[in-house]
Amino acid sequence: MQPMSEDGLVRSDAGWFDTARRRRIGLPEAIYAPGKAETDLVALIEQSLASGEPTIVTRVERELAERLVDRFDLRPYPALERRAPMVALAGNPVPSSSLERVGLVGILAAGTSDRPVAAEAACVIETLGHRTRFVLDCGVAALARSVRAMEEVADADVVVVVAGFEGALASVVGGSMAQPLIAVPTSTGYGAARGGETALWAMLATCAQGVCVVGVDNGFGAGCAAVRIVGAAGRNA
């Protein structure tokens, strides 16, 4: 591994790592696991942890995540015992005490199958020092659950809605709550759900005003957007 340059870049056989990104935009560089050899992932994680910056590794296959957790001081999202097929990993969390303002982000996951994507959003938010309130299995198949879930996150600064199938939960929440809303379509669902495409188009076409939508299964992007919103609120307070 080469020493850090003046612009915060560190280079190894696994590539460049940008240790100054959080100073520029408030968000650290994350490590996207799919397609990377385990040796490259290990090298990048070592770079990130050594920099002291928050470390976030996304979409890690569970068996590989187990090996990485054994090797490094990393927290898995969701917990490994839940045996989710994909896991996000986090290290070097930002102390909440270092922030001007700690935000609260409500995360509503329509179904239990949406947990890994919702947990990825929570990984980003919590690793960057903010709080989350996670409500699972509150989809519109039983609307009373959706109503109760919205009551549970009524005091949140931002709400992230994670839903597959037809993605209706985003419209229900967007038409009921005033907070900034980030909708995450997931690839959960049968047939016409088309791997998340139906939920994506439904969320983009929602008549609930001001709903922001990220790509299919992009819990990481939703978490980053939530942190940007909370950070902007803190600067303008």
Strand content: 15-25%
Class of the largest domain in CATH? Alpha Beta
Q: What's the helix count?
A: 8
Strand and helix order: EEHEHEHEEEHEHEHEHEH
Count of individual domains: 2
Looking across the biggest beta sheet, what order are the strands in? 8-7-9-10-11
Task: Characterize the overall form.
Answer: globular
InterPro entries: P2CMN_synthase_LarB (IPR039476), PurE_dom (IPR000031)
Protein name: 1-(5-phosphoribosyl)-5-amino-4-imidazole-carboxylate (AIR) carboxylase
GO molecular function: hydrolase activity
Organism: Acidimicrobium ferrooxidans (strain DSM 10331 / JCM 15462 / NBRC 103882 / ICP)
How would you describe this structure to a colleague?
With 237 residues, the protein is α/β, with parallel strands linked by helices. It has 2 domains: 9-91, no CATH class; 96-236, Rossmann fold (3-Layer(aba) Sandwich), CATH 3.40.50.1970. 36% of the residues lie in helices and 22% in strands. It has helices spanning 21-25, 38-51, 62-71, 115-127, 143-152, 168-174, 197-204, 219-236, and strands at residues 9-12, 15-18, 31-32, 55-61, 75-77, 86-91, 104-109, 131-136, 158-163, 181-185, 211-213. The protein has a 5-stranded parallel sheet, sandwiched between helices. Helix 2 links the parallel strand 3 (31-32) and strand 4 (55-61). Helix 4 (115-127) runs parallel beside helix 8. The radius of gyration is 18 Å and the shape is globular. The termini are far apart.
Give me a quick take on this structure:
With 237 residues, the protein is of the alpha/beta class. The protein is built from eight helices and eleven strands.
